[in-house]
């Protein structure tokens, strides 16, 4: 990828962040924005910026970055251009964990942990189903197993919600539709830590993803421990995706779209692809959240619905290319 | 250099052994070929060598070291494998793709140094792909792609080279070019193990042939030892005659038409 394209990608992220910070019920000019960032100007503007807009935009950046990286790593290691955490049951499992916690009345601090646990269970079940089908380490079998686990997760959520109270249903729906509306700095801090660790490790093992794309036998011929590397990459991708679900609920299709955009920009190997997908994913979620806020004010559309509206036609276009 | 010592392999839930008590060695400076009908266990041997299928018993050695205990990446610096299938999903440039062959030397984080670049360039020159080094691999023809894969394996800098049906889908010219290249590689002192269906070319180029049948070694030895009508007819279950290649005197196989049923 050329330097000018990297600059373009970064510029897209910076501009989308600036617009998302400035636009809202109280519109801010660039001068007001800069002044409020340093703590000057009227108290309301400073409060809106520091406690509402910035944490929200920052959370959107982190969620997008995590989903973009997770999608890029999964597409490469599974050699499937349609792989992404949302379609692989990782997100579904996380949502089951969260909804279960909400429906049994667990407190807010427990919910991200429950989401995380749900994602881990989904990954283990998907591995187990793929293994039981006799296709050891076959990425296609794992993809199928992930889709089945995702469908099963949806069924579980519906069962959990069948007799739930209205408040519980509303809470659960929030998880299933995705949102960065209630972002706090504390939430930002732990998500940043999770993504730095998981995403950092993915960037570190990126060359193994390059080798895995050649196919299992060719990768083994190059001295790669194929099963162990594929498992490591899947778990790291699940870890990163699950932490975004724990912070913002289900935001689908970001992990699918962004790696394709970055590949079009010229990224070939996975180290630049992962970094580029993090930047492009961040810009995409920031813009999607902006659309969710401004399309029908004062009501907010669910973030997951906006990304799905962008993502589904993209998915169908890709499906046509690959079939 | 590469030794298969009483190797036995069974796939899960299979009724018979995929490979049954197979022993032979691949020596340096010799082209050793494994031939046999479909399902005779040829590719299974290659997959066992790269650790993709476990051995039920026996052992595979590389320079006397048991590969079950060897470090995978170090093993890849000793033996390079061109597997039957390989995908070009990344659309890398030819030279970057050949550079992936240096993975066993570089690991996760190392970058290509002068020695690596030298190995990559030498591999591209040897296989005749240097002239299109900047083209993306997804734009190559079948023959070019096979040569680029061979270059990637040569860039590994290994003494042993294993190829699983490298000339499938290639026309006569490209196929001969690959065999001539394998001949030159062998002549330079490397050990080459070739799995192939091309009995006539194998008979002309290989010094040692192992004929597999239902997982067993049906015959092994020089082309003249193995390419006998009585042996091949039994293994391939088809009538055939063995003649002589007029140019080099190697045995040549000619499968016969079945006699027409009387009207």
Write the layout of secondary structure elements.
The complex is a heterodimer of chains A (323) and B (263).
Chain A: H1 3-22, H2 30-37, H3 43-77, H4 90-103, H5 110-132, H6 139-162, H7 166-177, H8 185-204, H9 206-212, H10 216-221, H11 226-248, H12 254-264, H13 270-294, H14 303-322
Chain B: E1 2-9, E2 19-26, E3 31-35, H1 42-49, E4 57-62, E5 65-66, H2 72-78, E6 79-82, H3 94-99, H4 103-106, H5 114-127, H6 142-155, E7 160-164, H7 172-187, E8 191-195, H8 199-205, E9 208-213, E10 216-221, H9 223-226, H10 229-236, E11 240-244, E12 251-255
Parallel strand pairs in B: 3-8, 3-9, 6-7, 7-8
Antiparallel strand pairs in B: 1-2, 1-4, 4-5, 9-10, 11-12
Helix pairs in contact in B: 5-6
State the gist of this model.
By secondary structure, chain A is mostly helical. Chain A has helices at 3-22, 30-37, 43-77, 90-103, 110-132, 139-162, 166-177, 185-204, 206-212, 216-221, 226-248, 254-264, 270-294, 303-322. Chain A has a single domain (57-322), classed as ABC transporter involved in vitamin B12 uptake, BtuC.
Tell me what you see in this structure.
The complex is a heterodimer of chains A (323) and B (263). Chain A is an all-alpha fold and 323 residues long. Chain A has a single domain, classed as ABC transporter involved in vitamin B12 uptake, BtuC (Orthogonal Bundle), CATH 1.10.3470.10. Chain A is 77% helix and 0% strand. Chain A contains 14 helices and no strands. In chain A, helix 2 packs across helix 3 and helix 12 packs across helix 13. Chain A is globular, with a radius of gyration of 20 Å. The mean pLDDT of chain B is 91. In chain B, helix 5 packs antiparallel against helix 6. Chain B has 263 residues and is an alpha/beta fold. Helices cover 33% and strands 25% of the residues of chain B. Chain B has 10 helices and 12 strands. In chain B, the strands form 3 sheets. Chain B has a 6-stranded mixed β-sheet with strand order 6-7-8-3-9-10, with helices on both faces. Chain B has one domain: P-loop containing nucleotide triphosphate hydrolases (Rossmann fold, 3-Layer(aba) Sandwich), CATH 3.40.50. The interface between A and B is medium-sized, with 24 and 38 residues.
């Amino acid at each position: 990828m050329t330097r000018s394209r990297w600059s373009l990608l970064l510029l897209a992220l910076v501009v989308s962040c600036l617009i998302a910070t400035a636009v809202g019920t109280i519109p801010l000019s660039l001068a007001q924005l800069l002044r409020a960032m340093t703590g000057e100007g009227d108290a309301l503007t400073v409060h809106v910026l520091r406690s509402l807009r910035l944490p929200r935009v920052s959370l959107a950046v982190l969620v997008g970055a995590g989903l973009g990286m997770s999608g890029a790593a999964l597409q490469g290691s599974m050699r499937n251009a349609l792989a992404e955490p949302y379609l692989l049951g990782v997100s579904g499992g996380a949502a089951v964990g969260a909804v279960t916690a909400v429906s049994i009345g667990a407190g807010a601090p427990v919910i991200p942990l429950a989401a995380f646990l749900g994602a881990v269970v989904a990954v283990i079940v998907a591995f187990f189903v793929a293994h039981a089908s006799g296709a050891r380490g076959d990425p296609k079998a794992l993809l199928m197993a992930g889709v089945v686990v995702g469908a099963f997760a949806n069924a579980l959520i519906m069962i959990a919600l069948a007799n739930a109270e209205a408040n519980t249903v509303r809470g659960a729906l929030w998880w299933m539709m995705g949102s960065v509306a209630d972002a706090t700095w504390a939430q930002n801090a732990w998500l940043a830590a999770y993504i730095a660790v998981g995403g950092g490790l993915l960037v570190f093992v990126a060359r193994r993803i390059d080798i895995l794309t050649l196919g299992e036998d060719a990768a083994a011929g190059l001295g790669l421990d194929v099963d162990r590397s594929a498992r490591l990459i899947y778990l790291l991708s699940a870890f990163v995706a699950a932490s975004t679900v724990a912070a913002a609920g289900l935001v689908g299709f970001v992990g699918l779209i962004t790696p394709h955009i970055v590949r079009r920009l010229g990224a070939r190997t996975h180290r630049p692809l992962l970094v580029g997908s993090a930047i492009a994913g961040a810009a995409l979620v920031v813009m999607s959240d902006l659309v969710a806020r401004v399309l029908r004010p004062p009501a907010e559309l669910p973030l997951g619905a906006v990304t799905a509206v962008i993502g589904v036609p993209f998915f169908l276009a890709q499906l046509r290319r690959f079939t | 250099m590469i030794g298969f010592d009483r190797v036995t392999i069974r796939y899960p839930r299979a009724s018979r052994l995929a490979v049954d008590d197979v022993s032979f060695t691949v020596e340096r400076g010799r082209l050793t070929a494994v031939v046999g009908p479909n399902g005779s266990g040829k590719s299974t041997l290659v997959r066992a060598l790269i650790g993709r299928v476990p051995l039920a018993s026996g052992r595979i050695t590389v320079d006397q070291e048991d590969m079950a205990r060897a470090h995978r990446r170090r093993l890849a610096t000793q033996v390079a494998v061109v597997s039957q299938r390989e995908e070009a999903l990344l659309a890398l440039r030819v030279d970057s793709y050949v550079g992936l062959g240096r993975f066993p030397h570089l690991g996760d984080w190392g970058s290509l140094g002068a020695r690596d670049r030298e190995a990559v360039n030498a591999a591209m020159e040897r296989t005749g792909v240097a002239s299109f080094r900047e083209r993306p691999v997804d734009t190559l023809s079948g023959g070019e792609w096979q040569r680029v894969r061979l270059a990637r394996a040569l860039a590994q800098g290994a003494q042993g080279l294993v190829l699983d049906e490298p000339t499938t889908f290639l026309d006569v010219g490209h196929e001969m070019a690959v065999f001539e290249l394998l001949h030159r590689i062998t002549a330079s002192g490397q050990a080459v193990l070739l799995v192939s269906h091309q009995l006539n070319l194998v008979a002309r180029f290989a010094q040692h042939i192992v004929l597999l049948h239902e997982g067993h070694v049906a015959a092994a030895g020089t082309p003249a030892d193995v390419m006998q009508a009585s042996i091949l007819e039994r293994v391939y279950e088809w009538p055939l005659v063995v003649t002589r290649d007029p140019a080099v005197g190697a045995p040549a196989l000619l499968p016969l038409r079945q006699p027409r049923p009387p009207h």
